[in-house]
């Protein structure tokens, strides 16, 4: 028997050490498994986000413009049109220089300086706008979620099958199918499977976000390779990225790489199949993306009894089952939170075109960029904001036989697309929309020859003799000198506006535009203003007014509280017929700041062309009412100046077109509390800017400068202002 001695303490120590070692090994293996799991989860998540796995790195083998427009395949005498949308591709993403494929497309084709979404900058409204050319208020899809109790009792998501009846207007696939009978295919574009016109796409698979991007490419290429009699002449296709990454504010650059790889694969496939020079490809997007930093819950501020609330970065309230008025509900939140605007359909800026339909809601609530009216743990970015927010701006690229090479189109709003689609499909002018025909002529190889269509406005009935008839008892004015000026000055016959409903009265450098029905309140004044340090009268001075006896031998009935709506301070601008009794709130919030700003511009630039006037639009559709009216609903003003030399002030004409600056406004005339009561003056003026075409529509006239080309006039009339001068 062995007398071996065992050290009990030593045995315990060894056992403890082994246990510790085992724990370390187990813990290490667990951590490795956990890390591997996270990596795998990340890869799966990334694959889920992009809808693809292991797309090859872009190689750009298709790049180059050597064979541009030289289609070598029979059966493509008319190029098919492929419209491809990447959801949520912000213009800012281009600055990251990740999506090189788009840069290469632009080298051989076209790009936009920027694209403004329609309001609100949400996915469903803007995708449907791009294929109808209509603002959301007109095509019915006013948001991603819409309330219309005549069609559905609750707020309804526009992606659901129950939303079919909500889709109004005629999209491009319906118009093309109706007018030509040719084939149209759709891959997941908004509205393809809901449109109720009776002319559906020939092929339109159910939406499947999980369909890998590679399979989507194969689908598009397969459609284009079909025999001519089976091949679609129009394809619309939608891809959901990089929108999801933008909402999460995570892996955006990674998703942009995926987008780049996707475009590269598509372009390579077109190249390899000899289709690249046979197809007109247009890549678009619906909106940009804004990082969120603030949330406000409307329900905690407003009593929601009898109301329907649509949440988002723009919140909308519908009065549904309540006796409260719109103003009462709006008053519960208006001016209560700094930076939050609370509009009704009566005072929302016309430029947003968001008042015509009941579906927009009774109250529209907007916050500063970064503010949302909902809480979310995962949504760190969103969109829907006013297009004045540059983070909402997006992109457009195009390449194909119909497009010029390496051309940039000026900034535009996405209602313009419809006329481009119609032109490329040989159907220009067949479908009315909110765009302007000819806007894209500068990017097309063979655009139509367009000339300015113009008629001269009639001069009002006159009595031949021009003298001053004073319409007040003010003293100190040299009436004889003013009469000589009226009698001897050169009259302007070549005015830049035309209307069959109006005529003009000449006041030398100024012109009074009045309705042929003298009982109608609608009128306007054209002024050619030159700054003078010797001005001796204020624009707010109302003591002197006159009429030109060439057109009238009596003064109009005036109220002592009437105000001139002219911009000039000199006697020649004190037209008795250019006065109106504006409400005190309008004077405070709009008229005084606008007059001061106009005066600042005149002092800075030296000369201004100014067109101011009264308009009537009671049904809030942005179009002048046909019925006679004695009360205006809106006031408008157009300012034009030259940063260089002038050739003429009336009509306004700069020596160089590029020196032309234009600024237009449309203001509602209201005598009640509005969100303007809690905005500073510059914010009000900027919010109520408009395009010249908006003014044309609400004032019922056409604006055109005869010495400019048709294209230049179109750009001038559709120019969107995102800042004051």
UniProtKB/TrEMBL annotation:
Keywords: Glycoprotein, Hydrolase, Membrane, Transmembrane, Transmembrane helix. It comes from the Eukaryota. InterPro entries: Alkaline_phosphatase_core_sf, DNA/RNA_non-sp_Endonuclease_sf, Phosphodiest/P_Trfase. GO terms for molecular function: hydrolase activity. The chain crosses the membrane at residues 21-47. This is Ectonucleotide pyrophosphatase/phosphodiesterase C27A7.1. It comes from Caenorhabditis elegans.
């Amino acid at each position: 028997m062995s007398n071996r001695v065992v050290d009990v303490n030593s045995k315990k120590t060894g056992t403890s050490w082994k246990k510790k070692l085992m724990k370390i090994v187990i813990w290490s293996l667990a951590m490795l498994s956990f890390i591997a799991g996270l990596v795998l989860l990340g890869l799966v998540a990334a694959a889920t986000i992009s809808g693809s796995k292991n797309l090859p790195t872009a190689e750009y083998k298709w790049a180059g413009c050597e064979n541009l427009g030289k289609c070598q395949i029979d059966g493509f005498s008319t190029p098919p049109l492929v419209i491809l949308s990447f959801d949520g591709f912000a213009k800012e993403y281009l600055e990251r220089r990740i999506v090189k494929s788009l840069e290469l497309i632009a080298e051989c084709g076209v790009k936009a300086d920027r694209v403004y979404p329609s309001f609100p900058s949400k996915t469903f409204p803007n995708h449907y706008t791009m294929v109808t050319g209509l603002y959301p208020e007109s095509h019915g899809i006013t948001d991603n979620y819409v309330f219309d109790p005549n069609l559905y009792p609750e707020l309804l998501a526009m992606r659901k099958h129950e939303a079919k009846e909500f889709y109004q207007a005629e999209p491009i696939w319906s118009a093309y199918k109706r007018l030509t009978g040719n084939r149209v295919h759709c891959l997941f574009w908004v509205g393809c499977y809901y449109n109720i016109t009776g002319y559906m796409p020939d092929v339109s698979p159910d939406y499947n976000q999980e369909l890998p991007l590679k399979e989507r490419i194969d689908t598009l290429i397969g459609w284009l390779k079909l025999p001519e009699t089976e091949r679609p002449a129009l394809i619309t296709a939608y891809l959901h990225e990089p929108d999801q990454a933008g909402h999460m504010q995570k892996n955006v650059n990674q998703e942009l790489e995926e987008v780049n790889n996707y475009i590269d694969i598509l372009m390579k496939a077109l190249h390899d199949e000899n289709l690249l020079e046979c197809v007109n490809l247009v890549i678009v997007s619906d909106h940009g993306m804004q990082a969120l930093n603030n949330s406000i819950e409307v329900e905690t501020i407003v009593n929601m009894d009898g109301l329907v609330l649509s949440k988002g970065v723009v919140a909308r309230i519908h009065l549904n089952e309540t006796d409260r008025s719109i103003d009462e509900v709006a008053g519960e939140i208006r001016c209560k939170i700094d930076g939050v605007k609370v509009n009704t359909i009566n005072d929302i800026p016309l430029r947003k075109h968001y008042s015509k339909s009941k579906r927009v809601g009774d109250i529209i609530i907007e916050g500063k960029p970064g503010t949302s009216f909902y809480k979310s743990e995962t949504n760190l970015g969103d969109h829907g904001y006013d297009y004045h927010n540059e983070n909402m701006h997006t992109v457009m690229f195009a390449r194909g036989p119909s497009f010029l090479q390496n051309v940039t189109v000026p900034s535009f709003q996405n209602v313009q697309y419809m006329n481009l689609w119609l032109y490329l499909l040989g159907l220009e002018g067949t479908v009315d929309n909110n765009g302007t025909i000819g806007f894209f002529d500068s990017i097309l190889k063979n655009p139509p020859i367009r000339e300015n269509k113009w008629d001269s406005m009639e001069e009002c009935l006159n009595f031949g003799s021009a003298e001053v008839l004073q319409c007040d008892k003010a003293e100190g004015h040299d009436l004889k000198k003013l009469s000589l000026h009226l009698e001897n000055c050169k009259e302007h016959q070549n005015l830049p506006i035309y209307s069959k409903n109006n005529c003009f009265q000449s006041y030398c450098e100024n012109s009074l535009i009045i309705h042929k029905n003298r009982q109608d309140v609608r009128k306007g004044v054209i002024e050619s203003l030159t700054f003078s340090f010797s001005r001796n009268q204020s624009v707010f001075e109302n003591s002197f007014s006159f009429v030109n006896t060439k057109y009238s031998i009596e003064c109009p009935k005036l109220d002592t509280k009437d105000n001139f709506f002219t911009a000039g301070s000199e006697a020649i601008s004190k037209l008795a017929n250019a006065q109106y009794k504006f409400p005190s709130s309008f004077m405070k919030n709009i008229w005084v700041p606008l007059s001061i700003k106009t005066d600042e511009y005149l002092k800075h630039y030296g000369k201004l062309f100014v067109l101011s006037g009264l308009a009537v639009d009671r049904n809030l559709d942005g179009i002048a009412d046909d019925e006679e009216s004695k009360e205006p609903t809106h006031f408008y003003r157009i300012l034009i100046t030259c940063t260089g030399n002038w050739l003429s002030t009336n009509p306004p004409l700069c020596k160089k077109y590029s020196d032309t600056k234009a600024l237009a406004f449309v203001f509602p005339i209201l005598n009640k509390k509005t969100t303007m009561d809690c905005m500073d003056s510059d914010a009000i003026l900027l919010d109520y800017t408009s395009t010249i075409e908006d003014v044309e529509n609400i004032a019922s006239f056409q604006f055109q400068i005869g010495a400019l080309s048709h294209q230049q006039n179109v750009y001038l009339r559709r120019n969107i202002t995102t800042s004051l001068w």
